[in-house]
């Protein structure tokens, strides 16, 4: 298996633009997580899904953030409109038993 | 607000020495404890999980848990330069994941050749 796949790996955009991050979890994993990592705040859980259903989105910072999982093999995290303070590395992870497997991350820079 | 605390480091140890990484947590209801390693510019990877008080060994790694003291540690024996990374402690209440799953800020370890 190729592991968790994320795209794009790097994204540079201007403030106010819409940003969409994509994730393909490992086949057969029933949980999917979106994290954000910054130097100031560390690794923060934004939202997670179980069997494609959003379970807990209490970590989503604002209404500008939304996430979907239309099927077991694909999820998106959207930021609209983006702001400079959204600049971070965004990780997607999927879970097998008690182990989370992280994707390589998307480094987002909002100018 | 559930908190997980770690010394940010850097913790520097000579090659071959034992590296000791510490983590404290605030929620007494926490049941699951994890250590992740993150190399610079890479994603976190799980190296140890522990659920019961005491020690758990896996190769050169030993995780120690003391729920009464709300303390979990990771020992790395015979440290190698390749162990140089940031080590993240994660704590969860129960066996489900969600807002109760919290990562610490990480401790940066540097193993000097």
Task: Please supply descriptive tags for the structure shown above.
heterodimer; A: 111 residues; mainly beta; 7-stranded mixed β-sheet; 4-stranded antiparallel β-sheet; 11 strands; B: 113 residues; 6-stranded mixed β-sheet; 0% helix
How is this fold's topology laid out?
The complex is a heterodimer of chains A (111) and B (113).
Chain A: E1 5-7, E2 10-13, E3 19-24, E4 31-38, E5 42-50, E6 53-56, E7 65-71, E8 74-79, E9 88-96, E10 99-102, E11 106-110
Parallel strand pairs in A: 2-11
Antiparallel strand pairs in A: 1-3, 3-8, 4-5, 4-9, 5-6, 7-8, 9-10, 9-11
Chain B: E1 4-5, E2 11-14, E3 19-25, E4 32-38, E5 45-50, E6 54-58, E7 61-66, E8 71-76, E9 85-92, E10 102-103, E11 107-112
Describe the structure.
- The complex is a heterodimer of chains A (111) and B (113).
- With 111 residues, chain A is an all-beta fold.
- Chain A has strands at 5-7, 10-13, 19-24, 31-38, 42-50, 53-56, 65-71, 74-79, 88-96, 99-102, 106-110.
- In chain A, strands 2, 4, 5, 6, 9, 10 and 11 form a 7-stranded mixed beta sheet that branches.
- Chain A is globular.
- Chain B is mainly beta.
- Helix content of chain B is 0%, strand content 52%.
- Chain B contains no helices and 11 strands.
- In chain B, the strands form 2 sheets. In chain B, strands 2, 4, 5, 9, 10 and 11 form a 6-stranded mixed beta sheet that branches.
- In chain B, a hairpin with a 4-residue loop joins strand 7 and strand 8.
- The A-B interface holds A 31, 33, 42-45, 48, 55-56, 58-59, 91, 95, 98-100, 102-105 and B 32, 34, 42-46, 49, 88, 95, 97-99, 101-106.
């Amino acid at each position: 298996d190729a592991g968790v796949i994320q795209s794009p790996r790097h994204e540079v955009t201007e403030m106010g633009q819409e940003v969409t991050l994509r994730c393909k979890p490992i086949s057969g994993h029933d949980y999917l997580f979106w994290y954000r990592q910054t130097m100031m705040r560390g690794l923060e859980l934004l939202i997670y899904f179980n069997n494609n259903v959003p379970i807990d989105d209490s970590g989503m910072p604002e209404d500008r953030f939304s996430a979907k999982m239309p099927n077991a093999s694909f999820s998106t995290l959207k930021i609209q409109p983006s702001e400079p303070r959204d600049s971070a590395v965004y990780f997607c992870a999927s879970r097998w038993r008690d182990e989370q497997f992280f994707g390589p991350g998307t480094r987002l820079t909002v100018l | 607000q559930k908190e997980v605390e770690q010394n940010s480091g850097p913790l520097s140890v000579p090659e071959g020495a034992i590296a000791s990484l510490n983590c404290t947590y605030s929620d007494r209801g926490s049941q699951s404890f994890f250590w992740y390693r993150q190399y610079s510019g890479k994603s976190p990877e799980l190296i140890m999980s522990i659920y019961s008080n005491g020690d758990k060994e896996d190769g050169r790694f030993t995780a120690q848990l003391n729920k009464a003291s709300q303390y979990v540690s990771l020992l790395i024996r015979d440290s190698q330069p390749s162990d140089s990374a940031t080590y993240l402690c994660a704590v969860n209440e129960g066996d489900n994941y969600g807002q109760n799953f919290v990562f610490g800020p990480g401790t940066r370890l540097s193993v000097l050749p």
